[in-house]
């Protein structure tokens, strides 16, 4: 159970903000942050905004997942289409199973998409 908060994204936002607040004492600007997901990017954005860090002039921030409920169009985000990638990987596995068993290796790549926000130039 999440402590006093049942929403894991909100908890991640708070934790990332707390971590970023501590980072500010030793931070060197300008800087760029690529966060593990949009919730972490949002927490960093909140910290930097509240501490007068100019975004994107002093800090550019990008998240991963393109979760509009979290980034609200403010934070740039990379979307990697995990469902589509998983579907394509499963299809490849089914279609090429015999070849893979004999040692053939396939590479599967889907280009990510960048969703712009005010946190990047």
SSE topology sketch:
Layout: H1 8-23, E1 31-34, H2 38-50, E2 59-64, H3 68-71, E3 76-79, H4 82-95, H5 97-101, E4 113-115
Parallel strand pairs: 1-2, 2-3
Antiparallel strand pairs: 3-4
Helix pairs in contact: 1-2
Question: How would you characterize the overall build of this protein?
Answer:
- It contains five helices and four strands.
- It has 121 residues and is of the alpha/beta class.
- The protein has a domain at 8-81 and 111-115: Rossmann fold, CATH 3.40.50.
- Helix 1 crosses helix 2 (38-50).
- The longest helix is centred in the N-terminal third of the chain and has 16 residues, at 8-23.
- The protein is elongated and about 60 Å long.
- The chain starts with 7 loop residues before the first helix and ends in a 6-residue tail after the last strand.
């Amino acid at each position: 159970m999440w402590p006093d908060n049942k929403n894991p994204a909100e908890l991640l936002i708070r934790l990332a903000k707390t971590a970023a607040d501590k980072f500010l004492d030793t931070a060197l600007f300008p800087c760029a942050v690529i966060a593990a997901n949009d919730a972490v990017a949002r927490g960093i954005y909140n910290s930097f905004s509240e501490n007068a860090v100019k975004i994107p002039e002093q800090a550019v921030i990008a998240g991963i997942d393109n979760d509009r409920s979290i980034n609200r169009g403010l934070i740039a985000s990379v979307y990697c289409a995990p469902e589509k990638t998983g579907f394509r990987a499963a299809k490849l596995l089914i279609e090429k199973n015999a070849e893979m068993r004999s040692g053939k290796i396939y590479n599967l790549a889907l280009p990510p998409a960048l969703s712009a926000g005010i946190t990047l130039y």
